Amino acid sequence: MTGKVPELIRCARAIVGGEERLDFAFVVNDGRIEDAGDFAAVQARRPQAQTRSFPADRIVTPGFINGHSHAYQILLRGRGDDLPFERWRSEALYRVIPQLEPEDVYWVFVAAFSEMLGAGITSVAEFFYLNGRGNGHAEAAIRAAAATGIRLVLARAWMDAPRVPEAFRESVTQARERTRALRAEFPEANVCVAPHSLHGASEEMLRAAAAFAGEERCDLHIHVAEGEAEVELSRERYGVPPVLALDRLGVLNERSVAIHAMYLTEDEKELLATRGVRVVRCPSTNLYLGDGIADAAPLRARAVVVGLGTDANVKPSLLDEMRLAAYLEKASRRDGGALQARTAFALGTSEGARALDLPAGELATGMLADFLVLGTEGIDPWSPPVNALVYRGEAAWVQAAFVGGRRAYAGDLSPLAGEAHRETARIARRCV
């Protein structure tokens, strides 16, 4: 769809601003939407654009935004199931992932990214921590994103805690130099800095990462208050809970993206809002690992931007994350109106894009041309489409995914994805 001749996408049905629009259109040029509105008006303004039409048995939506992922954790499916967090980390994560070579990373990431595209995920923030031996593994992840067509934000982890595997650890100097090299070589990968956590990175590394983000004008992703144990550790080490500790270290500002941020005091919630920190919640992983239930409403009430992520990728589906976000909020507050479908949809699209500082998640002028074509067989004629997607939607509804105006998923497993699944099975058998 990119090139000299813009393309006008005519949608008999589309989701725009969280609501259904009929006979809507947008113009794609050089990977972005440069005009949008009612079809007749857009066509009149852009008579030379080539037209592609999607009929009423399909609905066009913004692509889904995956705000936090560890793609190689698809290798832990079945191996880490039903374990308490500490055992999951030591017996599954720390055992399997350090064995991966760069070529393994490439195939596993192609498999995981292909799954995501098939579920309607067009952008993913990949929190990548296999950096102890240099940039080779991260480069393989970037190659995998390019091969599949998914939009990548590579949150390159910095880790130096003695308790983590050597394959994850590096010095502050190494982390800084390697991250800067990746940013220079792969601008399309949106490489940003990601000090792992209060327990995964030293005070020196946390301060250095914050300084790096300021110097490079990039985002900083960090795991925050994922479990009660982290809160206890922070109080023992710093005398205050995690958000307050990170603030004292100079980590929190408008460039910061706090992953999880579940166990927060009221003062910490206020501080996140005051500092302009964005938050990404991962409902399915938090439930799977027994970490707890994260509520979005108290943060959103303070104007904190909140997105959603698939994290451990037990099942990489933003539709599932939207649904869980809504259900968990309703259940925890005993209020069926606590988090409504339209809000949940925004967490996985427009607000999720804001959490990653991406101009995406909306079918609007100036946005990246990342969109989905969904079948409408599962949408009741009397139901708002957004409600149907959030409460009943399935990956099988996704017929096509476009990233930057290019088709990245066409409804069937691609030959590359098929090869990647075979290679991933071989890698999984080896990494025991």
Plain-language structure description:
The structure is a single chain. The protein has 16 helices and 16 strands. It folds into two domains: 104 residues, Urease, subunit C, domain 1; 292 residues, Alpha-Beta Barrel (TIM Barrel). The strands form four sheets. It has a four-stranded mixed β-sheet. It has a four-stranded antiparallel β-sheet with strand order 5-14-15-16, with helices on one face. Strands 6-7-8-9 form a four-stranded parallel β-sheet. The chain is 39% helix and 22% strand. It has 432 residues and is an alpha/beta fold.
What is the element layout, followed by pairings?
Blueprint: E1 7-16, E2 19-29, E3 32-38, H1 39-45, E4 50-54, E5 58-62, E6 64-69, H2 85-96, H3 102-118, E7 121-128, H4 136-148, E8 151-158, H5 172-185, E9 192-195, H6 203-216, E10 220-224, H7 228-238, H8 242-248, E11 256-260, H9 266-275, E12 278-281, H10 283-288, H11 297-300, E13 306-308, H12 318-333, H13 341-347, H14 350-355, E14 371-375, H15 385-392, E15 398-403, E16 406-409, H16 415-430
Parallel strand pairs: 1-4, 6-7, 7-8, 8-9, 10-11, 11-12, 12-13
Antiparallel strand pairs: 1-2, 2-3, 5-14, 14-15, 15-16
Helix pairs in contact: 3-4, 3-16, 12-13, 12-15, 13-15
In short:
By secondary structure, the protein is of the alpha/beta class.
